[in-house]
Structure formats: structure tokens, C-alpha cells
Design brief:
The protein has 10 helices and 10 strands. It has 295 residues and is of the alpha+beta class.
């Protein structure tokens, strides 16, 4: 019995350790560890870009959007934005031929057909990424000031701010006014990420036409420029949950450490040079100390 349990645990460990087998680089601004069968595309069409700009217009016009997921999921998500009428036309025609005499029966029919369509199209959810080339200070100064204030808060203060902004966000979205959507904020937290930058972690769940919809959004600033990662899951999805854990900060952390080391070296060299100029150090002592700092 114990051996069997150990084998099960070992198998589970192997499965979990191989979930993220590929790293996708978005414009050298963010690295994401994703499943091997995921790929990324830049959203080139105006329709797709405008779809997201409606939500993030305050971040400026110089923004790029990317889809990340399986080939089939990316295609389905694109069609849902760019060619929704063609995608849903067979369902609408089929519904017209049915004798559905109540709103409930129509909703049940549509929900079943949409689930069938997603299975047929092999949709497994999608990850999207927004990267901006504009400083937040220039595009939304009020939001920039909020982020600046968050930078000096401790953990307790960030938790308090999270509760306040969650209530404000709920009021702005008017979640209770959307009939039949059953939409709610299941999580909103402000935290410090591995770059020591304030980041928001938002999760929204909804149910409409008996179909579950789950959204995750994680955002922060890098060099004062916004980066926002989101996932959209309709029904059952695979490989897209826990997006903040997919972010690979290793390149950023290494860069920060390198910058800090460079600053310290310059500072020490300046101090050493002042000592040499003041006559405290001889030329030989200066050269030896300089070599030690640089090595």
C-alpha cells in the first residue's frame, strides 16, 4: 500500500514539474513559462486591438497585444472577436429551426451548442498580454500617483488598500446590475512582485447561459511602463490558470542585480579617486585598490 502511494505521489510530481516546459519572450519585456504546445501571436487586426483598448485606454495608444495558447485556442479567440457572426451563424440557424417557446429553453439550447462548438474547435482558454511603450505618468497621471503611493506601503497597508480598491472596482463595474451574468470579483489583492514593484492580482468569475467564465488579470509597472497579463477561460480550460506564477523574473532580477553592482563599483571608484587626489593613497596603492574593486 505504501509503495503504491509513493508511486502515485512520484507520478504526480513528474506531471506537475513538466507543466511549464517552454518560455515565451514578449518584446524583451516579459518572459512567461508556458506548456510546450503553446505559442504566441501579436494581434494585428484593429478589431482585436480595439477589443482590449476599450478596457485599457488609459494606458495610451502605443500598446501591443498578444495571444498565447494552443493553436486552436488562439484561432477560436481570434474568430470570437473578429468574425463572431460567422462563428455563431450555424447555432443561430439551428435555433431558428427549433420550436423554442421560452427564454429558458433558448438559453439552455444556446449554452449546449456553444459548449459543443468549443469542443469542436478544441478551445482550451487563452492568455493575453498587453505591453506598453508609454510611461504611465504620461498617460494616466492619477493612476501613476496611486502606484507611487503603493511603493512606500508595508504589507498591512497594502492589504488595507486592496480592500478599499476592491470595493471601488466593484462599484465601478456595477456587477449587481448585469442581469443573468452572476459576475463577481473572487479576488483582488495588491502585492509586491519579485521586482519589488506593486502589482495587482484580480480574479473575476461569471456564469451566463450555464457556462462558467473565469478571468485572471495581473498587472504591474516595469520601468514605469505597464505590463498586464490576463487569462480567459470559457468552460473547462487547461494550462492557463495561475498566470502570475508563469512570469519568469530571472532576466529582470539579474538585470537589477547587475545595475546595483555597477552603481556600487562606480561609487567605490569615485571614493578611491578622491583619496588618491587628496594624497591619502600613493599611486601604487591606488592601482592595487582599483584592480581589486574591478575584479
Amino acid at each position: 500500500m505504501i509503495k503504491k502511494l509513493l508511486r502515485i505521489m512520484f507520478a504526480a510530481f513528474l506531471m506537475n514539474s513538466n507543466v511549464y516546459a517552454k518560455t515565451i519572450n514578449i518584446e524583451d519585456k516579459i518572459l512567461l513559462n508556458v506548456p510546450e504546445n503553446f505559442s504566441s501571436i501579436k494581434l494585428e487586426t484593429d478589431e482585436a486591438a480595439e477589443y482590449y483598448k476599450e478596457f485599457f485606454s488609459s494606458l495610451g495608444d502605443d500598446t501591443n497585444f498578444y495571444y498565447i495558447g494552443t493553436k486552436n485556442s488562439v484561432q477560436f479567440a481570434n474568430d470570437l472577436i473578429n468574425d463572431q457572426e460567422t462563428l455563431l451563424e450555424p447555432i443561430m440557424k439551428k435555433m431558428e429551426s427549433k420550436n423554442l417557446n421560452s427564454e429558458k429553453s433558448m438559453m439552455n439550447f444556446v449554452s449546449k451548442e456553444i459548449i459543443k462548438l468549443m469542443k469542436k474547435k478544441k478551445y482550451q482558454g487563452i492568455i493575453w498580454v498587453l505591453v506598453s511603450d508609454e510611461n504611465l505618468e504620461d498617460t494616466d497621471y492619477d493612476l501613476f500617483e496611486i502606484v507611487e503611493s503603493l511603493k512606500v506601503m508595508n504589507k498591512t497597508e497594502l492589504n488595507k488598500a486592496s480592500l478599499e480598491y476592491k470595493k471601488e472596482l466593484k462599484d465601478e463595474l456595477s456587477l449587481g446590475d448585469i442581469d443573468g451574468l452572476n459576475l463577481k470579483i473572487s479576488k483582488f489583492k495588491i502585492e509586491r512582485n519579485k521586482m519589488d514593484s506593486p502589482a495587482f492580482d484580480l480574479k473575476i468569475s461569471a456564469n451566463m447561459l450555464n457556462i462558467n467564465l473565469d478571468l485572471e488579470i495581473y498587472g504591474y509597472l516595469k520601468n514605469d511602463k505597464p505590463i498586464i497579463i490576463g487569462s480567459e477561460c470559457i468552460g473547462k480550460c487547461k494550462g492557463i490558470k495561475g498566470i502570475k506564477n508563469m512570469i519568469d523574473y530571472s532576466n529582470t532580477v539579474a538585470t537589477n542585480i547587475s545595475s546595483e553592482n555597477s552603481s556600487k563599483i562606480i561609487e567605490n571608484l569615485n571614493k578611491l579617486n578622491d583619496l588618491y587626489k587628496s594624497g591619502v593613497l600613493t599611486k601604487d596603492e591606488f592601482e592595487k585598490a582599483k584592480k581589486k574593486i574591478l575584479n
